Amino acid sequence: MKPPDLNEVTWSRLHEPAVSARVGRWVGICFGITFLTGLISHYAQAGSQPVPFPTSPAWGYRLTQGLHVAAGTAAIPLLLVKLWAVYPRLFHRPPRERRALLLHVAERLSIGVLVAAAIFELSTGLMNAAQWYPWSFSFRASHYAIAWVAIGALVLHIAVKLPVIRAALGEDVRREPESSERSDEVKPSVSRRTVLTGAYGAALLGVLATAGGTVPWLRRVSVFAVRSGEGPQGVPINRTAQAAAVTEADTGASYRLVLAHGGNEISLSRADLEELPQHTEDLPIACVEGWSATGTWSGVRVRDLMALVDAPADRDISVESMQRRGAFSRTVLPANFAADERTLLALGLSGEPLTLDHGYPCRIIAPNRPGVLQTKWVQRLEVI
Ligand SMILES: Nc1nc2c(c(=O)[nH]1)N[C@H]1C(S)=C(S)[C@@H](COP(=O)(O)O)O[C@H]1N2
Ligand SMILES: [Mo]
User: Fold this and answer.
1) Whose CA is nearest to atom 16 of ligand 1?
2) Angle between helices 192-211 and 60-86 (to 10 degrees)
3) Ligand 1 close to Cβ of residue 360 (< 6 A)
């Protein structure tokens, strides 16, 4: 008995390169943006940087990380439509001839790697933004490593498919052909334009959802934004004091900030900090999750504080939180951040003392610094 010809089972013009190359082009653009902005974010968070991450412009990380999450979110529906557009090819019969077969297997393997890496990146990124960690591996290390796999496989894929992509993009998808050259065509119930418009529309929704975490007027329509953009003193809270196990007792009258440099050590109460020269800066909190918000912070310059223990200006500072556990309980403030006059140990936000959830008695706020490193509930600053 003759087996059914799988090549022809689900063929329709919706599954032709004219559609998949168009959606694929946007998947590629989104992955390019997420890759480059991801490298920036990874570098900004690296423990040691051969070239210091710049402190200006203050809104730089806010922009790059906003783009990262927006492009990644937009890529989710685009990738799904792209996979749907090409899936009938999975059922194509492999060629018989040895050399052709080898090439076919190599192509399938590389596409398998690309698809797996792309799905891994988009799903872990989305889950990280939603603060859902059903895994035990380090998000940052694995998201970063697999990004290289995804981008490498993507570049290879584009290179191999370039002739097909070129021809497909040259085709006019607005005009539906009256009849196909193929007699076996399954007549699709929607047009190619509808499929493409749907894909782009869904991607745009993803961008709006992300932007809603940053742009105030968008918040009301961004039902998918992971943070509402609202919080005490006009800035959202990421981790609350309760979640970080920081109590009112820790932050009460017995609270002391320790400044240390070699053998020099002094401790200051919150009242002592209020006696020091105060400065006010408008700076954003820009979270890796993509949302950001500008606050009007007031407090003491970190460089003024470190001068109290005769610290040289060209040294990294270790920032220790009262939070005892977790990756962000201790961070490093690179020398150029510590020296920048906009870098504050903030005591207040919006003209009021910080709320406990925003880091009372004091927190770090520095320009162009990833939100995760804007350490709250600071208890010790030490020259490294
Ligand atoms: N000690 C400590 N500081 C922290 C965090 C934390 O978990 N622990 N979260 C960081 C993250 S991820 C962000 S985005 C900002 C958010 O600051 P906010 O809650 O005041 O908006 O605080 C940062 N500071
Ligand atoms: Mo964050």
Assistant:
1) 238
2) 150
3) no
CA 63 / ligand 2 centre spacing (Å): 14
DSSP alpha helices (H): ranges in 191-334?
192-211, 216-219, 270-275, 302-307
What separation in Å is there between the alpha carbon of 314 and the centre of ligand 1?
A: 26
Q: Whose CA is nearest to atom 11 of ligand 1?
A: 372
Report whether residue 295 contacts ligand 1, using a CB cutoff of 6 Å.
Answer: no
Question: Residue for token digits 């607005």?
Answer: 174
Ligand closest to Cα of 374 equals: 1
**Per the structure block, which two tokens stand in for 8?**
């022809």
Q: Is the CB of 328 under 6 A from ligand 1?
A: yes
pLDDT band, very low/low/confident/very high, at 182 (cuts 50, 70, 90): low
Which atom in ligand 1 lies closest to the alpha carbon of residue 238? 19
Of the candidates 318, 321, 352, the residue with the CA atom closest to the CA atom of residue 334: 318
- pLDDT score recorded for residue 324: 85
The CB of 287 under 6 Å from ligand 1? The reply is: yes
The reply to whether ligand 1 has any atom less than 6 angstroms from the CB of 374 is: yes
Strand-strand pairing, 257-261 and 352-353: unpaired
Cβ of 361 closer than 6 Å to ligand 1, yes or no, is no
- Nearest CA owner, ligand 1 atom 1: 376
pLDDT tens track for 269-320: 999 999 999 999 999 999 999 999 999 999 999 999 999 999 998 899 999 9
pTM, entire model: 0.92
10 Å CB burial of residue 84 (0-12, 13-18, 19+) is middle
SS3 380: strand
Helix or strand (DSSP H, E) at 156: helix 139-170
Taking only the tens place, the pLDDT of each residue in 217-248 is 676 666 555 555 567 888 888 889 999 999 88
From CA 58, how far away is CA 290, in angstroms rounded? 16
For 206, half-sphere exposure in the C-beta direction (CA atoms, 13 angstrom radius) is: 22
Confidence band for 362, pLDDT divided at 50, 70 and 90? very high
d(CA 347, CA 379): 13
